[in-house]
Amino acid sequence: MNLPKWDSLKEEILSCRRCERLVAWREQVAISKRRAFRDQVYWGKPVPGFGDYEARILIVGLAPGAHGANRTGRMFTGDSSGDFLYQALYKAGFANQPVARSREDGLELKDVYIGAICRCVPPANKPTPDEIRNCVPYLHREIALLSRLQVVVALGRIAFEQMVSYYGFSPKPAFRHGKCYQVPHSSIILIASYHPSRQNTQTGRLTEHMFDQIWMQAKSLLQGA
To answer: How many independent structural domains does the chain possess?
Structure first.
């Protein structure tokens, strides 16, 4: 664990203003708010990664939710996607509690670190290619710091495709929920999963059982203590 490098990276992420559109949007959302949270102070800044610096599993999401992480300041915290994710991680033994409401709620992750392709909330949850290129190097630096990494779980097609590109797969594998891929010239395994978005969970595209299987699969692939 290299705490100075983690701290430095976090500070860089927090001060980032590379993408004019995203800076404007994250700050606008923090001002306008959702009615249910009108009395809360929104984070309205880039959201750093969260979790165990000694993790063997990396979870890669897309971006903060407008009224989730952009409000709370912690990945997958305060929205339905986070409710679905943390419940599954708790059942698999990777979290000490099944809910995530705020940065001060006592949630701790074990053997898991959560990053994202983009650290600012994008309009309509759709970052542009340029915005992805600007932001994804932060994730690459997190990966370099995760010295014990064995499994990467990509939540959604964009996260999966970015990991495929980062790891230099050739030919590029197709996205398929639950499918495992050996990273070239590495012992790391990449797992593809549907994103636990409300659109996926409420339509039944991603069920609780399907998601639980992802984490059981990830757990079974871990080597060593």
So the answer is: 1
Query: Does 202 score more than 90 pLDDT?
Result: yes
Give the range of the structural domain holding residue 147, as residue numbers without chain letter.
3-221
pTM above 0.85, yes or no: yes
Residue 125, sorted as left (phi over 0), alpha (psi -120 to 50) or beta, turns out to be left
Q: How many CB atoms lie within 10 A of CB 100?
A: 28
Confidence of residue 225 (pLDDT cuts 50, 70, 90): low
pLDDT tens per residue, range 93-111: 999 999 999 999 999 999 9
Q: How much is the mean pLDDT over the chain?
A: 96
Separation CA 154–CA 175 (nearest Å): 10
Say which CATH number the domain at 148 has: 3.40.470.10
